[in-house]
Amino acid sequence: xxxxxxxxxxxxxxxxxxxxxxxxxxxxxxxxxxxxxxxxxxxxxxxxxxxxxxxxxxxxxxxxxxxxxxxxxxxxxxxxxxxxxxxxxxxxxxxxxxxxxxxxxxxxxxxxxxxxxxxxxxxxxxxxxxxxxxxxxxxxxxxxxxxxxxxxxxxxxxxxxxxxxxxxxxxxxxxxxxxxxxxxxxxxxxxxxxxxxxxxxxxxxxxxxxxxxxxxxxxxxxxxxxxxxxxxxxxxxxxxxxxxxxxxxxxxxxxxxxxxxxxxxxxxxxxxxxxxxxxxxxxxxxxxxxxxxxxxxxxxxxxxxxxxxxxxxxxxxxxxxxxxxxxxxxxxxxxxxxxxxxxxxx
Amino acid sequence: xxxxxxxxxxxxxxxxxxxxxxxxxxxxxxxxxxxxxxxxxxxxxxxxxxxxxxxxxxxxxxxxxxxxxxxxxxxxxxxxxxxxxxxxxxxxxxxxxxxxxxxxxxxxxxxxxxxxxxxxxxxxxxxxxxxxxxxxxxxxxxxxxxxxxxxxxxxxxxxxxxxxxxxxxxxxxxxxxxxxxxxxxxxxxxxxxxxxxxxxxxxxxxxxxxxxxxxxxxxxxxxxxxxxxxxxxxxxxxxxxxxxxxxxxxxxxxxxxxxxxxxxxxxxxxxxxxxxxxxxxxxxxxxxxxxxxxxxxxxxxxxxxxxxxxxxxxxxxxxxxxxxxxxxxxxxxxxxxxxxxxxxxxxxxxxxxxxxxxxxxxxxxxxxxxxxxxxx
Lengths: 346, 376
Known about the structure:
The complex is a heterodimer of chains A (346) and B (376).
Chain A: H1 7-23, H2 34-47, H3 66-77, H4 85-97, E1 106-110, E2 129-130, E3 138-145, E4 148-155, E5 170-171, E6 178-180, H5 190-225, E7 227-228, E8 231-232, H6 237-266, H7 269-297, H8 299-302, H9 309-321, H10 326-336
Parallel strand pairs in A: 1-3
Antiparallel strand pairs in A: 1-2, 2-5, 3-4, 4-6, 7-8
Helix pairs in contact in A: 1-3, 3-5, 4-5, 5-6, 5-7, 5-9, 6-7, 7-9, 7-10
Chain B: H1 7-23, H2 34-49, H3 69-80, H4 90-99, H5 102-113, E1 119-122, E2 138-142, E3 145-156, E4 163-169, E5 180-186, E6 192-196, E7 207-218, E8 222-223, H6 229-240, H7 243-246, H8 248-265, H9 272-298, H10 308-331, H11 341-349, H12 359-370
Parallel strand pairs in B: 1-4
Antiparallel strand pairs in B: 2-3, 3-7, 4-5, 5-8, 6-7
Helix pairs in contact in B: 1-3, 3-8, 3-9, 4-6, 8-9, 8-10, 9-10, 10-11, 10-12
């Protein structure tokens, strides 16, 4: 057992941090700046981060769950408004199905609550939302096939939008056709789906850890600068203790997330999924509270559109919901421990 | 990065697991009961004799000289077997290792590690709690000895201990932090009286108060140099704050496992709200398990005593108190009298945000030393 990042993982983290520090938005006014976003997209495309979960010979993934989690944490910290979660999860689906890599940029479609991968039953688009959809021409989803599922794709309409200002979603057009992904794509088993969900949960947890780091940094910097009663507000214990609690929640989240990211490939699929839901329950609950603290520390300014604090909160609310929020994840934990029979739980 | 065992680690784990089948002392649910504290000394010697104690400490003091991740394996297996946690002595060992002379280390550490000598810690005083540097117990040189006068409180195991690690003021004129020295004081002598304190869960074996009235300690039993007491105290308390050092994950795991069993035996008796409370405790314990693995892995780079200990202490406190709330929700209260085990587990959890430095002090340290927020 040695849960320190390897030298390669540290190098990956450092290069992700550099891209984020150079190209991610530093103010609300920079969000939507097409030139900056194009440069950021190009840097991410050149980095090979989208390919971390593509198949190598024999079908195994190029990298473990830890490497994309390391990248996701840095992107979350910097509010990087560039696709990563969607393309990575799409690549993982193709790998698990044994399909060829996509020939256009693509993401995944989830049910409207974002709690699971969307399923199409009659050849047309179900009610579903493609997440992290900017730049994606299509989204992957499932078509039930006996005990298993088939991988399918649907073209995406333009104009993504929604809650997260850095990773817009798009609602599927109900009239679009759902087309099965070509051979050699095979069936997706229940175990495949559990492992895919484990990766998705681990990556959203890593994003939440990054969001918490970024939000604590933002609020700490503001508390050092902002003066009232002739002193920096960060010198007041009432403010210090909120920020200390936020930092501590982030550190706990990071520890449980590292394990979930490692477990994606290292444990059997059901155990990987349980490790991921334990992490998601913890991180989703922590992240909401940490982002709310960041808003509170900013006072009135924190409640204005121009303050980055709400951009962190919005991003955290999306990541929290993707593949199961705190409550849904806690429910999974209870089922895993055979505790779900209690009165009124299900 | 690997959370899995190496071959050597998995062999060690298996050896411990097999040993536990025949050697689990079956003490009552942790630390809520005098019988538990009474049984801990024997448990310590049992673990030590079998080679399962002091895994990462040097071999010349009786440790096993292995990597810090072996402590994690011990905790996990103790938890899985429902055995008591390992005794919490790491902070004492680290403090003496770091500050004691070779003579002191050779003289005292083997007896601490093998469980032959029991120790207590005389730091806090009635008027020096969070503000430890204001302590007033004094030690005055008299020939070859120092003579100690004053009062200590919250002294764990003062009734059982043969030795006390005492902080006392040796220089009355020096600035607050500078005039303090540390001593290894023999407890069984006429100048010392101790009295157990009965805690809110009824336990009388854990905490005590100690009066020093002309107690004597040989000058050569000063640990570190004159005036080094504060720095030793900071080493000790920063270790005391780390859950990896204390091995509490095993205790929390045992509690949530016992509570889960209770729900599975009669699921219809519990509401969704009660079971969710248990679910959150399970999530919190899992977080701490992973956090301890991470922090003990960090020690492969060498031990440091940074402010991260305050982060660990706050995380550990949130886990202990979440488990305490689950104990109350699931275990319930026997209003008509009867088994108070779970109520007492809850009551005991309230001390975690006070002992070893209050949560408020830990937050001050995180805010100032990690986040770099300005002094007030």
